[in-house]
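Reviewers of the previous submission asked for a worked example of the structure-prediction workflow described in the proposal, so we include one complete record here. The input consisted solely of the amino acid sequence. No template or homolog information was supplied to the procedure at any stage.
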Amino acid sequence: MKTLPWSLKWIYPVLFLLIMSVNIFGQTNKPEAGKKTDYSYFKGGTISVIPSSHQDIAWMDSIGACIEFRDKMMITPVLKRLRENPEFKFSVEDALSLREYLLRHPDSWNEILKYTKEGRLDWGATYKQPYESMYDGESLIRQTYLGRKWLRKTLPGCDFKTYWNEDVPGRSLQMAQILSKAGIPYMQFSRHQPGIYRWYSPDGSYITCYTPGQYDEVGIPVRQANTDVSQLTKVFTTMIADWNGYFRERKLNPEFPFIYSHDFATPPDYDAFFTDWNKKSVSLGKPAIKYATGTEFLQAAANGEPNFDVIEGERPDVWLYIHGPSHQKALKASREGSRLLTAAEKFATFDALQQNSFAAYPQAELTKAWENAIYPDHGWGGKHGDLTDRAFRTAYETGRDIAASVLDKSIKNIASRINFSGKGIPVTVFNPLSWKRTDLVRFTMNVEGNDMNTFKLLDEKGSEIPYQLIDDHKITGNRDEVITFLFVAKEVPSVGYKTYYLVKEKPSVFKSTSKIDGAFYENNFFRVEFADGGLKSIFDKELSASLLNTDKFLGGELFTMQSVGNGAGEFTDVQQPTMEGFEKMSQYKQPWYLVSSGPVRDVYEFKKAINHVTVVERVIFYQDLKKIDFEVELLGFNGERYREFRLAFPLNQTISDVAYEVPMGVVRIGRDEMAGAAGFSKASQIYSTPCAQVHPREVQDWFSAFDGKNSVTISSDVAVFDWIDPTENPVRYTILQPLLLASRKSCHGEGNYYLQPGDHFYSFSLYSNTYDWRGGYRQAIQSNQQMKAVVTDPSKKTGSMPETLSFVSVENKNLILSAIKKCEDDDNVIVRCYDIEGIDSEADIRIPLTFRKAELTNMIEEEGNEIPGSGNKLNLKIGHHSIETIKLFMK
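From that input alone, the workflow returned the following structure tokens.
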């Protein structure tokens, strides 16, 4: 982001409010008294009343109580209304509601199928209504697998075209493309400037979408009128008059929507009112009125070539505190689970292909894992929110643990087929990412009963590799006679493996290249000065540049502020922390200590009790890797209300371009957001802050800052980061800040606090180079997707596979393989990739197994069109920012 002079920053919100006061889309000023109400544009058109009911998984009550409500007060009464009135229609927001209902009422399937086929009962095309940028890209795609794809199988002959996400004030950059390419062309959303839009992703994909403003507020006059025909006539006449100019100016189809929805809404009955209105509508020049589904309205609105307003770019979520900082352990499990799941699918697929059969492919386990991994929606907290939050966290942990089990079994199966030629104990390192990488590997080995525990580590050519023994053991069961190795594995193939060997010999002594002198540390890459509580300076020797500006904060310095807020709620901008109770580690004069040094890494640490928590920080330097790791432990946090903890990386950059990863894309702050502000939602809720100025932000694996010469990229172990100084007398230069924890409260009147007492753990990696974000994102992704090692019994060397192998590779550095999996519908293979750098390219994808043909499918593996490719090589043109799904038909 090009930093604006502080004297000008006030202009944008004020100017926007002035514009808003003159004219609000879809909410134009009502006609002056005495003038005829004009609704003439809608003559011969239609008012579509779209009955629905906004349903978080919970929020209004416990999960069980909400499931019961959806049964007894929503779907069962809807079915009754559909029986009684052949004109009635209803839209359910998501697929999970159907799953819940069929579990309770399996005998209702025929009736539900009948009404759905008739177009009178519609189901939202995703599993649930997520925080879009909280999840990674594959998780968002699986919303459509467990949504539209599952619905089409469950209700054959029907289709599902509309994504409902009524509540969340945030939209992810690539969501329009994901939906469009999954066969979902429409979206019903809310908390946004009222109107009908085309929302574009950067590749050019778009969806047609409608927002009434705030979904609940727009229906209040109708609900207040109850069934009074006279009052309802006035309300709907006023509505179409208010929207008359909006439709006329854009030459839209005269199809006016009214969403009847609020939390826990029950199906309405306006039959008598509709009859009365339609008797008079022609003579009064009014449109006819009818019940409709959301899909039916949007299809009618999109007919022809209407001149919809266009939106493109990320709309930053202003509710981001509710999931990341306020539910840290849950979100950590979520991120770990989604990364493990895609890795598990990749290696389970190649395990099956090696066996020439998918009979043992763990499809049921993987489906269950995905169902858990994407189950939590936007309804954290609420009434009985402690139960909901625990259920959400348990779902994430269940998905993660299933994925870890599948991955472990798959890579062990693959390792068992390798022809190990070397002497010693084979250690096979697996890389789940789609590029060759040099990176850290740690593995724990059971040494109970060994006659000696000194080893040399050799690569497959017999060259000795330095390693270091560490105390970070990964053990299961009661095995505790173990040792854990840490080493750097070089050039491990893309989505593949490389083999090393442990030989029972005394290892060579590898001299450290680092220099340690009091408060100063130097290795091949950096020269660092320590100060109490953080790093005083980091000098990049390769760049010949000082990376930090530590006039106010030290590098990696933890600080804490007051953080009064709800996370989610009716506010219009992110609720910022304040200075009450401000502390930073440097005020405690806490020195660092060198606690570990060896041929792989050097570790500095301090431990200090401050108010409410004990802080442990570690800074780790590597002999052969150009990166610095920062580890933070918040131990024994007492759950003090309204506390927030951040980590500071103050950069020596006068002007910064800040960029960060979002699902399957990158947002450059000030360039890739939705233009302007989100606007009017309701009279008491106008989102006036321009999207480019909303902060903090949701982030995936990394965030970065570039000053035109050098960049700093930080891998993220958290879901939220900031770049603007939140303290008093803020500095103008960039301070990258991962948000570690915030003990806020649910905005529900009976909601719970998110205090999160106990221990919390975090890790971050800092990278620097001369390029912008494109120079560091791969390494940052690597930090969050560690390589796995399998130690094989040396007596079992009967395989035929090579010691080093890439199962699939893509030669284009701008492309990322996000998924390799068994096809959902048959025993072929799905490969999904996307461009992250904004480059048109011809993908060069190679696989060491033979396929007979390839098809380009939609996002849910359907509607395939054959493309050139066979044997073991595939060439495919992939446009900038595109996400493409390829089906390989195996021989």
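Residues 385-415 form the longest helix (31 residues). We consider this example representative of the routine output the project will generate in years two and three.
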